[in-house]
Amino acid sequence: MFKKILIANRGEIALRVLRACRELNIKTVAIHSEADENAMHVRIADESICVGPSQAQLSYLNIPAIITAATITDVDAIHPGYGFLSENQRFAEIVEEHGYIFIGPKSKHIEMMGNKIHAKQIMEQNNVPVVPGIYEMKNDKKIKSFIDKYKLPIIIKSASGGGGKGMRIVHDLKELDNAIKSAKIEAKKSFNDSSVYIEKYINNPKHIEIQLLADNHGNVISLGERDCSIQRNHQKLIEECPSIVLNAKERTKIGELCKQTIKSINYQGVGTIEFLFHNNNFYFMEMNTRLQVEHPVTEMVTGIDLVKEQILAASDEKLQINQDQIKMNGHAIECRINAEHPKTFIPSPGTITQYHQPGGLGVRVDSALYQGYSIPPHYDSMIAKLITFGESRHESLQKMKRALEEYVIMGIDTNLQLHQSIIESDIFLSGNYNINFMSEFK
User: Which residues fall within 8 angstroms of residue 371, CB to CB, at 6 or more apart?
Assistant: First the structure.
């Protein structure tokens, strides 16, 4: 087991990893920027070290500074959390080259799944259903034949990255050339890779993802699915587990296909395979080779600590649980609380003047906020995750409704009221919402 882990992240995820380490009797090192000197993860860690100025590019994305911090503090391993460098193949390589353990998959697996075209090909080889697509972008005849077969609209996607960058929907053939050009320019700017491909556009699907966990000894388990369809500009807002649209047979079938796939590439650690789900059919989108923001809903329903399991897998421990032991009990919902105006969505950094977080049975808050804390303007606007658990979806929603009413964050704008409106809307209560919910929500 590791003796000391450096946490290469900030905010609630740094605190989440730190807590798991403490329960495993592992010492922690928190890195931080100048702006995060008073952050909660810095206060609680066994050691802390400043790695640069406020800008992420000069601190949390500063690989030489992070490796230097690891050397100075004599750690065994580095946990990247999510975001920042968590899916940076070169960072994982450098960590490995310096003799540290990267708490995540091997760098080759990050590279393998980081390219969506390559990832789709691996899925096809393992009989995982994928969205029909064309990857040869220089052959106009093939592109025309594809569009003739699958009809408009089609979607152009970046081969690298995500978050809606390098993505264009084409409804008219006259738009095609300009859409490809603009998608390539945005992809190059965002991911330093101008490669794009074309897929059939699937109207109004749900976004369903499968959580997987693998050790270094060939053992793989599926921990069920999450419904992540409530999203704005391809950024998730609300997630729940399990999805009410899947039955046990569908869950088992897609879970087994995903397990087979990551076993075929000798994957290690936690990973999530994401799908569009439409007319009872799954269509592979991408694989995230890291811990997901929404991992708490899976933890609440399965009772399995994903961060601890991730650390144990990285330390070469064998999984102590098998698929037959995985039980989906009850229902969990997560609302992402952002420091932003609820209507304009403009980020709202500033000082927390009053803070009270909800509690009670079945209520969990993952956050690094405290009264008097100043939220810096340099990073992502998500400041907390509110998670509720109940024996049924109705009970979980009732707890969420109560918890949102009880949550007090003063001094900044937040999207608490937006979440209240969403979870009380008829379409959300019915469960029949899809990824376009927010574009139609008033």
Answer: 352, 353, 354, 355
| pLDDT per residue as tens digits for the range 305-315 | 999 999 999 99
Name the residue type at position 118: H
- What stretches in the chain show pLDDT beneath 70? 442
Classify 115 as helix, strand or coil: strand
Separation between Cα atoms, residue 83 and residue 433, nearest integer Å: 27
227, 286 Cβ separation under 8 angstroms: no
DSSP for 335-376?
A: EEEESB-TTT--B--EE-SEEE---STTEEEEE---TTPEEP
290 is catalytic: yes
Q: Are 250 and 279 in contact (CB under 8 A)?
A: no
What does the alpha-carbon distance between residue 386 and residue 403 come to, in Å, rounded to a whole number?
Answer: 8
Backbone angles phi, psi at 424, to 5 degrees: -100, 0
The closest alpha carbon to 276, from 132, 150, 151, 385, belongs to 132
**How many whole angstroms separate alpha carbon 65 and alpha carbon 118?**
32
Which segments of 45-115 does DSSP mark as H helices, in order?
A: 63-73, 89-97, 107-114
Strand partners, 364: 387
Residue tagged active-site, from 290, 336, 364, 402: 290
How far apart are alpha carbons 196 and 113 in whole angstroms? 15
pLDDT 10s digits, 240-292: 999 999 999 999 999 999 999 999 999 999 999 999 999 999 999 999 999 99
By CB atoms closer than 10 A (0-12, 13-18, 19+), residue 206 is buried
